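In this section we walk through a basic example: taking a raw amino acid sequence and producing a predicted 3D structure, encoded as discrete structure tokens. The instruction is simple. Fold the sequence below.
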Amino acid sequence: MADEPITTIFDADNHYWETHESFTRHRDPSYADRGLRLVEVDGVHKYYIGDRLHPILPGPGDEHGRPMPGALRDYFAGTGGPASLDALSGEDPSAHPEWFNRDARLACMDVQGVEGAWLFPSQGVCMEGPMQPDVEASVHILGAFNRWIDDEWGFAYRDRIFAVPFLTLSDVDAAVVELEWALARGARVVSIRNGPAFTPDGTKSPADPVFDPFWARVQESGVVVAPHAGFEDGYRAVEDAVARAWGYLSAQHTGDTTALTCVEPLVQMLMKHRLVHDFAAALVAHHLFERFGRLRVAFIENGADWVAPLLHGLQLLASQNPGMFSSSPVDQFIEHCWVAPFVEDRVEELARHLPVERILFGSDWPHAEGMAHPRDFLANVSSLPIDAQRRIMVDNARELTFA
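The resulting token sequence is shown next.
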């Protein structure tokens, strides 16, 4: 790497695997039977919501086989055919301390040439939706989970590992308190769900003024908000409506399913990128960036193919509704938003619509759908000038983290 023009990289999409204590170590006993439950079945723990198995997660990452990094990259690129179950669970987690331990991860990052990384939950991003409508329990369980993250990874460990607390807007007052706690512990990046916020009164746009106390504190602190894709129940009604319109009883695929096959294939294709596109559109159209002119939002593991249609749609929205925006909604998105393309996306195509200063490198390591080795992403930017490559691979995430 010393002979290469880009010697180190800053990865905006890294992950750990949750252990069996992740959601329960700091949980109050009064919530033992609410929200997420850990149930021992045949000698291993499984995730339950009430009396139901979690829709897509088998159980803690330290007790269930995990995929080899990059094992499904060709599948998601559409060049590898169907995925096998072995690809989802064929790796012994005990052989990979770097998936669970921050010092082992630092040693791994040294070998990989990764100077810094944002670390997101693997399973935590799939928990808030299934716990509904028990908003109180979901707020508590996610708060307990954040304290486990702080214990095990730290929000700014040695200024190289930046584990990301997962916040919920379901209770705006609690969200502000949780944000303050995370900031006091050194958080540089926080995450919220893509999609409508769950509240006791139903779902709301995250840009609804009711959430302004949260966004005001985000702006004041300068922390980056990084929505990360996960299992999303907030668009279940939309997904089911699309399915029924095309002749299915529901969006859910029947029979023996996995996390990859739980939705009818056609419906899955039709819904791809719809949520993040609509979520981003709502942030702009509901005037979040007009009310808070210094917010920074980074869309992680949501791909990039939705960006061009979004910008086109926002331009049309403004043209057809004079006076709706105080300034160009396209410019608002570009000023306030960063995007990390999927590893199979064409970065040069994204750069036609979004400045390279707003494009982030994310390997999704060690997930199956990501890169086997983070530096492999250099091939994805090789057609761009070297200064643009350096911006994407290092400088943008570094500046967001330390600004």
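Looking at the output, two observations stand out. The domain at 9-15+97-402 is CATH 3.20.20.140 (TIM Barrel). The chain has 14 helices and twelve strands. In the next section we compare this with other chains.
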